Amino acid sequence: MTAATGTAAATAAYLRSRHRFRAAEAAPWLLLALVYFVLQGYLALGSQIVVMILFALSLDLILGYAGIVSLGHAAFFGVGAYAAALLAKHGWAEPISGLVVAAAAAAAIGAASGWVLLRTRGLTLLMLTMAVAILLQELSNARSDITGGFDGIAFQMSPLLGEHNFGIYFKTQYVYAAVVLLLAFLLVRRIVHAPFGRQLEGIRENVKRMHAIGSPVHRRLVTVYTISAALAGVAGGLFAQTQQFVTLAVLSFDLSGKILIMLILGGTGRLYGAFVGVTVYMILEDQLAKQYPQYWQLGIGAVLVLVVLFARRGLFGLAEDAVKRLRGRR
Amino acid sequence: MSAPVLETRQLCKSFGALQVAREINFALHKGARHALIGPNGAGKTTFINLIAGALKPTSGQILLDGVDLAHLSQAQRVKRGIARTFQINTLFPGLPVIENILMAVAEHIGVAADKFRPAGANPEVIARGQQLLETLRLEDDALRLVRELPYGRQRLVEIAIALALEPKVLLLDEPAAGVPSTESHIILDMIDNLPADIAVMIIEHDMDVVFRFAREITVLVNGAVLAAGTPDEIAHNDEVRAVYLGGAHHG
Amino acid sequence: MDQAFNAFVSIVFDGLAYAMLLFIISVGLSVTMGLMGFVNLAHGAFAMLGGYVTVTLARDAGVPFLLALAIAFFLVGAVSVVFERALYAPLYRTGELDQVLMTIGLVFMSVALVTLVWGPDPFNLTPPDYLRGQVDAGFRRFPAYRVFIIGAGAAMIVALYLGFERTRIGAQIRAAVDNRRMAQSLGINVDRLFTVTFAVGSGLAALGGGLGIEIFGVKPTYALDYLVFFLIVVAVGGLGSVRGAFVAALILGVVDNAGKYFFPEGGAFFVYVVTIVVLLWRPLGLFGRA
B19 by DSSP, 3-state: which? Predict the structure, then answer.
């Protein structure tokens, strides 16, 4: 009897441990705060990094957790960006409500396209995600009178909360983006540790089994796709608002590919991989890409190939392995 | 005799010119212990796939408590009370046993769509999972990854998941398949102890298991029912002996 | 009335030429995907390489055009085998995401390498004299080079048909596409078959890349620019179906040309709409099988 209670207690303890906050999880936020105080000259890049982390998180939800491979996630980023930009340009420049609109617009596109696309799998699904993004880009280009085309549109944001200006030192923008990231992160973390998150992982690992336990797979996938689209839309909206400028590049295949690479580099399915991958990629890109664009592209391609062959769980995975080995030695 | 829980009427399935199910008439009553036997390729797994909704029939009906299941998806049929296991383990090998089972429990009691409460903190889900572990004597393996378990015990997880769904109808596709003879008693014990009111249909090749477990037997050959009846009737049926049991009785 | 007829003929003719090129380039991708399920997004890089090799040989080394095309076919086909054995083979069991990532990485590398070797500017190639000018069909004159492309495409279709229907290796490929496990149990060495198919498919892509310089151009971003079209041909046609690849290429070619003709500004996007509609109706492609 004692043995049974023992294992039951151990099981319950294990299950509880999966969602508990660990001390180490404070690290990225401490770092973000540190950057604000110590690296004040880099807050423009910092804001971009924060925005991209949010974008990568949204991709991790569908890719890392649900196993949906998308080469067109920029579609939602772009929709959010343009929604926020056009709203501001045409008279409503309050930032937070702009983000809400961006999220809603992206979610709508996400729900509609997801409902249709997620009936397919494999190459067809992959190609359709690309097609949707290209379609949106072509449409935006066709109406460049509204969207500004590749030249883009510039606009002014109203001060945040009525008093903080989006200034040239990006201080307000950085804090704004970081707070939004924190809130979004807590939301995503909740979702992945909830039963819904488990279901997504089940769908990713063995969809046949999920059908056989009564899981409405298509509905679950469309739901997560919509949530992911909304978050990508928030990232896009943040991007447009903090830059006060937007071009067709926000809908490009280039961006879809980049965010995928950043996430893979960091590691999928663990949330923190997004933080690591984006930061490393963007800092390296900032330092190297302008000077040696061809070598940068060559290097990124090579890194991707090497990661797939040798470090499949990305930098975060490598770090975890290293920590495990250190703990094992002690 | 009460109405059958599960019934098929003139169920047919063909892939082009290949007929894998020919006008199968079949009935399963509450509490049934029914074995489906037949040579390899007779269409037994296809039959389960048709009932479970993994395959669409060419013609014929499948009725659960008198309701036609024709337009229902696999998942919908599960919700109505049909659970099946697979001939080859279809589990989450990288997850612990408990998580495999809780996935089904959560779905069954309806909390699977919850996005806010942590999965590991739902007392009812955990309690039910714990109970299933005890029923199948898997408590000690609760936290072990499925892929680390011996194949026989993995098979038990497969069955645990089906039981988690509290089905009316349980379709077991060769539960002892691939299980080394040293472990097969585990499966046999478990089958003996299934809840009495579930209607159970089991596909099996091992005649000892069949005759120990079944109160009714259906023999399927080339997609058609060759014979159906009590174990005694089947054992003495000349046609069946000629086609299928013959070898066993000579040995 | 006359003008409408002329427009119709133009659209069909140009669409057919475009379709032939798409077909020649994409048919290899469709068959290898149907055979091994391997998502090779770098397929376009082989077409691009074929284009660069052809231009370099024909323009800079004075090699006769047709010979340059043939060399491109064999050279790129051979090179592709190295990639297949070294980089692709380890990923056959690991799943789609890994394959997508690896091949995207290769595409990026190809863009960079090509820029470093040949520079960032697009290349052009004037066809040999005997393929220039116009062909008189009585009611209309057609550009000779495009007639040549259509002819080459038709010859390719016949060759592929004969290859698949009349040779043993063709029968083996068809069997393996249909049911790989069954084919293996019949003693067919599917892995080796795949390598051969992959080589031929990549060679054909290179051939298409060289043939199509006039229509698709040749520049470092080629593999990325046209990736979605090759994928559309394969997905809409159905994995593993040569017939499907041709029909899909035809639809794509004609729709794209018609779209651009009637709506010069937004015409490109009809192709995507048609793709989405077709795939909703037939998720496995027009001639695809489960």
Answer: strand
